[in-house]
Structures are given as structure tokens and as C-alpha cells.
Amino acid sequence: MKRLSLPVFLLLLFFSHQSAAQVVTEWVEAKSPWESNKIALGYPVPIPVDTPLPFDGFRTYAGLHTRHLDLVNTTPWVHPEAVGVTRHGRTIWAYRLGDEDYLTVDGFPEPASLTNGGIHAREWQAPETVTGIMELMALHESDAHLYDYLRDNLNMIVIPVQNIDGFMQTQRYPALNYMQSDPSYPDYYPRDGRMRRKNMLSADEDFYTTFDHLNGVDLNRNNDPFWATSDRSSPYLESIVHHGAAPASEPETQALDAAAQLGPIDRLRIYTDVHSYSRVHFWSRNRNVRLAEQTEKVLEVFSDHHRAFPARKSYYFDPMESIPTSGGIGSTDEYFTYTYQVPAWTLEIEPRNGGTDYGGVGENTHDGFILPESQIRRVREELAQSFAAVYYRQSGPPAIRSMRIIDRDTGAVVFEADWDTVNNLSRSLHSNQLRALQFDHDYDIWLSFTKPMRWREDGVVAAFPGQDDINLFFQARAYVGDTDLTTELGEPVWLMQPGKAPNGYMTYRDDAVRMGLRLPADEQNLGLITAATQANFEFWVADMTAMGIDANPATVADWLNGAWRRYEDSEGTQSDVGGPDSTISVQLSNEVVPPPFVLEPGITSSWYHSSHDGEGFLIELLANNRAVMFWFTYDEAGAQNWYVASGKVIGNRIEFPRLYAASGGEFGPGFNPENVTRETVGSASFIWSGCDTGSMSYHIGSQHGRMQLERITRLLGIECGQAPMAPLPETALLSGSWYDPAHDGEGYIVEVLEDNRVVVFWFSFDPEGNRRWFYDSGAVIDGKLVFDDMTTTSGGIFGPDFDPLTVERTPWGTLELDLGCESGTATYNSSEEGFGSGVLNVIRLTSIDGMSCPP
Predict the structure, then answer these.
(1) C-alpha–C-alpha distance, residues 219 and 126, integer Å
(2) Residue 97 belongs to domain with CATH number
(3) How crowded is residue 702: how many other Cβ atoms within 10 Å of its Cβ?
(4) Which of 394, 425, 458 is the last residue of a domain?
């Protein structure tokens, strides 16, 4: 038999003695003075309930895990990831909160956050709090504001319970633990049962087998870079702060790092380890001053936000100057600070003062780990909202996205500018001056940003919880050279309705602002503006957490090595505060400028760009400033595709907030309209500078693009720029959209031209349900619209890679439309296999504005 060394022998003897003295002790609400084997709380002892639903109490691990799976299965916002197994073989689950992809709405790789719970088994508040984050993000109603923004643009990773084995052990014995067994503080430290802290290394799950009840590893001492360097950790298995055999020796520790990789790791911007008790943030510093400054700012946002709740619970943190820049205890926040250079901290949540905050008697300091059941709903719900606040901040600095200047008399846009995405590093500025700005004329400026910028209370713009009103500033000026123009600017109005310029937000509520603008013809301005002169606008504003805008949107701000990069101030210097944006210039004139072009029904026609010959747009202007658009195009593989949209006419532009793609149709007699679904895939915006020229931009998924527009057709009876033909020829009234109600989901767009010519587009499907379209330029013969050479296409590639030389045109068959003013028939005969022939009974769907059938 191997002989033990003397120190090991003495150590075993010591613990054998401790084992003999250990006493099973019970937590109770109240006790008699002579009940030495009980510890009084002063409030009811929490008992976990096996339910998934949140209530005024604590849930079992099984209940919490069921809740997590319910959120996975019933919402689109929770995505499970197995990241490891415990010492006892239980799966450790992380969850990604947000949409399914890893891209922001601009197509950039999403930033990531990681929030860990349940590292110390006895701290039941932590799994409840992290589950509260999941519940908030998954179940908050669509708000087109903070929560939709976070779900769309941030990969929020959470681990509700890292130390599952230990957590379940505490819940098996929710009122029992041992006293007189801790080797360091036997009189004050309850161990195992309800007060187990560590994982279950070399420990079974039977509370009454006492030989192993002190075993396990403190997972918050099991991390680089300060593993085993502090007297607040221990090499001894029985110690409550045993640091393990090596850094990351424990599978639970390894699982935490695996969860961080889900970001992926180069996208991580914030880490929190949720503990209790004492309401404090513990954080460590390395020698990166910018990281320390940003960590301090994040903690300030969190604490100020949480203190703004009615409960007024304050979370303290040490200022950076009082924190040493080296040394630690082996905690997880140290690991993330030093390894991944992100703001990281240990969050110690309630109780404080040993539970006396809630009427507790404070008999044993460890009652600070036992939050009353009556408090946990408030704690988890309010903390979840404070986490949302810092997630929002670390999602990134705001930047100007778009600017419009609108002629107030006509509603027409006279200037537009957009920062278009190039890649995750850069944007390019697209600007379009349709009319120069002139003196003594009323305009509106509309400005949008990359994130929602304002908070509201009872519908009124207010400071974000915990922030000062001073952060609601908005500064704007216009200048030429180094001299300010005299500008009369209206009060900025933040926008909470959809619709884009001038009265709606861009993507999220309060991500856009509108203000009036007038440039008086005073001596200052007349001296600066001669003929056509370029002037710069400068804007300075901060987001809800007082984070200033990026002074240069051309470089996409990101996080690297503990600080923001490509986040510039007004001098072009890398910063962590941003600065005024003066990147947009506008042409001004001291001369009288003609009124801007305003849309009229004659815009109705087919449009395309010559570099995209083979795809295009059919625009119809309807009554009451409405419009419809049909986009015949392709997918990324070269197959035909089409979209349809309904929009609003505003001055010289049309906004189509939702592009729809139809699915489920089947060409021919098997068509069933009940199988057709319409999915929103994006949005589009069109603007015209005249009768024959314009431009469009679109967002489909994370893809953005724009095209210049050229007219293809001119409809009979409504020539743009001329009075409508009177009386209108009967055939002219046939222009518009037509469909068979039994085939709702497909239809025809007819354009009657001069000289008995007519164009048709048939938007439909193939027999397998793929979107298809067919077209022809035909003739009006004996009152019927005859198309002998219906054509189909293939080979176009959607987006900037479109090459008109790859588009192949193939004969499809014939079509004859026999139409009255409101109804008729469509007879087709296809030469493409699988389509056959048939007759459809069609009715009118749309009429061009001013071209309705006579009563």
C-alpha cells in the first residue's frame, strides 16, 4: 500500500475530525432560541416549484428547462445550442436570442453578447434572471423599436444554468445543509444541500453520504489568466473555493467558452456572469485603458437604468482608477476581460444585507443567497430590461443612414442621400440633387439613423431610464467653407409612425427625425451663395444611452481589442465618443429654381435600366395617391422570380414598404388559391426627376441595391406632361391589372399603347410551383388583344451581378385576351411542356388613375 506523506495524513485527519462534528441544519422562517440546528430567515423559505411558467417564486431546473424549450418551440427568437456536458453527464444548453441569421438588417455580421447564469449552485436568482432575459426577448410584443431592433441586430447568447448538477442538488434539499463542516469557517459557513456552491466533481447526489459533501470545484476560480494565483482560491478539493486541477479543467467551464464561440467569438462585445448577493458589479482591469473606460460606461448605463425603476435598487461598482491592472482570483469575468478584450463583469444581484432588506433577521450571512419568493418576479423582470439597455449600447455606435430634403409646397424630394452598404467595413455615399435649394423657401429635413434613437414615456419623447434630459440634444447647422449660413430650423420631431420621409421612421420607431428648414436671403447668405454653391450640413446627436453618432459613416464602426474602431470624431480621429457628422453636402442657389417634378398618372408604364435589360418594373398609378408595382426579375440561380407591392404616392416618389413574394401556386387547372401564400421579403422606394427618368432602391433581406430608371412604354391616353386624351379611346381603358378569382395569386398586367399595340405580362407559376412570368408585345385585332409570341426567360442573376448577355429568351406560346371594361376571358396555348392550354375568366383588378370605366 502506498504510504501517505505527513502533510496529506494530517489533512485527512483534520477533515475526518470535521466530518465527525458536522450537523444537518435547516433553514426556517422562524425558530426558538434553543433550536441550534436551525437557521432563521425571517421570511418563508423558498421551495422550488416544478412549473415552467414564471410566478412569484422559484422554478425547478426541470421547470426552467421546459420553459426554455417552450420558448424555442413557440417563438422564432430562441435557438438552442448544446455546448457541453456536466460532470454528471447532463447537457449544458446555451440559447441564441434574436432572429435566425447572424446578420444585421444592413447585412453586417451581428455583434454578440454572452450572459451566464447559475455558475454557483445556491444562487437561484441567477437562473431565474437569465431565464427572464429569454422571456423578455422571446415574448415582448413586436414594438418596431428597442426589442425588435435587438432581435434583428444582435446575437444575444445566454446560458441559464452553467452548473446544472450543483443547482439540482440545492433544489433537492431546499432547506437543508451542513454546519460545522467547512474547514475554514465551520461556525458560519453552511455547506452542501441548499448551500452547495461548487460543481459535483467527486460528489454523489445523496445529501446524507457525508464523505463527499465538501467535494467539487468552484467554477468561478477555474479560469485563466489568474488561476491558482490568489489566496481567495484553494488547491484543496474540500475548500469552498477549490480552483480545480488546472485552468478550465471542468467541463462546465469549457462549456462557457464553447458558448462564447457561438458569437462567433470575434463578434463578442459584452460578457456578464450573474451571481448573488449584495447588488454590486465586480470587474477587473487589464492595461487597456479604452476597454476600462468602456466597461465603466456600460456599468454606468446598467446601474442608472436599474435605479430608475420604482424599487430604486442601486448597483455599486468601483471606478476604474481604484481597480489594479493585474491580479485576480480565476473568475470568468477576468477570463473574458483578458482573453477576449470585452467589457466583462460579475453581477451580484439581490439580496443585500443578508436578507434584512426584506424583513429577514440576518442570523447567518448566507441568507444573502436566499431571495424571498415575493421578490423574484420583480428582480428577474427588471434586471432583464437593464440587460436590454446594455445590449442596446454595445450593439454599436449610431450613424446617419439617410437624409431627405422635401419641398414643403409639393411634397417632392429635392435632395436625397443614403449611406449604402458596401461590406462590413465600409459604406458609400449616394446623393441625388433633384433641385437646388433656394432662399426664402420652406423645406423639411428628414434624417434617419442606424438604430432607434429616442425613448418614450406615455408616447412622449423622454430620457431613457437612468439618463439625463441633457442627452436629448439635437444640433444642426449649415455652412460654406468655415462660415455658418443663417438657417431657420424648426424643432426636431422624432417619428413613431412607419412610412419613411417625411413623416415616418425608416426601420424602427424613432430612428428618424424631421425638422423644418428655411434659408433667408439675408446679407450673410447672399454673401456666401452665388449661383450654384455646395454647402455642408452638420448634425450632432446621441442615442438613448448617450452614445454619440459616428462622424464618418463611410467606415463601419466595430469592436476590436477592447475598443471601438472606425468610430470617428469630427477631426477624423478614432474615438469612443463619436462626433458631429458633416459628410453630406447640398447644392444651394441664389436664383429662382423651377418647381420640382410631381408624379402624375402618365408615369404608369414599364421601366428598366439598360444595364439590366431582361428585368424591370411595371408601375401603375391608381386613384387616391395609391400605386402598385410588379417587378419581373430572377433569383440568385438565374431562375425567374417576381415581386409585387402596393404603395403610396408622395410628391415625386412612391414608397413600397412591403415587397411580397407569392408561393404555392400551380399553373393550370390544378391552381388552388387557398394554397397561395404571400411572404414579405423587403421594401422598395422609387423617385422621379421627370417624365422619363428616375431611380429606385430596394432592400430584400440583408441585400440592398439601387437602379436608375428609363421608360420603356407610353400608355395610350395619358401621356406624361400632357393633358389626358379626351375622350379616351375604349381600348385605352383596358390598361391595368386583371385576374381570375379562381386563380387568385396570378394575373395579367396590360398596357395599351398607340397604333393598336399592346403589351402584356403574365405573372404566374410553373406546374411545380416556381414563380414564372411570360410577356409579349402584341396587337389589338378585332377588339381582342392578341399575343402570338409569348416569351419566357432565364439566366438573369439578381442584384449587382446581373448581366443582360446571360439572359436567354425562349418562346412560350400564345395568349388572347378578350376583354370588356370590367371582365373577359384569357385563352392560352403553351408550347412549353407541362403548361398545356386553357381558358380563364378574368375580371379587372386595377384601373389607372383617371381611366376608370364609365358608369
Answers:
(1) 15
(2) 3.40.630.10
(3) 14
(4) 394
Quick one: average pLDDT of 733-744?
97
CA–CA gap between residue 521 and residue 56 (Å, rounded)? 66
Torsion sign across C-alpha atoms 322, 324, 325, 330? negative
Q: How many CA atoms lie within 13 A of 489 on its CB side?
A: 20
Judge if 86 and 139 occupy the same domain.
yes
Rounded average pLDDT over 295-302: 98
Residues listed for the chain: 855
Residue 753 lies in a domain: yes
Rounded to an integer, the average pLDDT of 751-764 is 96
Q: Max Cα separation, the chain?
A: 115
Please give the residue range of the domain that contains residue 651.
Answer: 601-847
- Single residue among 525, 555, 589 that ends a domain in this structure: 589
- Cβ distance 238 to 16 under 8 Å? no
- Report whether pLDDT(13) > 90: no
Walk across the sheet containing 437-438 and list its strands: 437-438, 581-589, 532-541, 474-480, 483-484
- pLDDT category at 724 given cuts 50, 70, 90 is confident
Structural domain count of the chain? 3
pLDDT above 90 for 8: no
Strands (DSSP E) along 303-343, which ranges?
Answer: 316-317
SS3 796: coil
pLDDT, position 19: 44
pTM here is 0.93
Please indicate, yes or no, if residue 313 is contained in any of the structural domains.
no
Q: Are residues 632 and 548 part of one domain?
A: no
Report helix, strand or coil for 150: helix
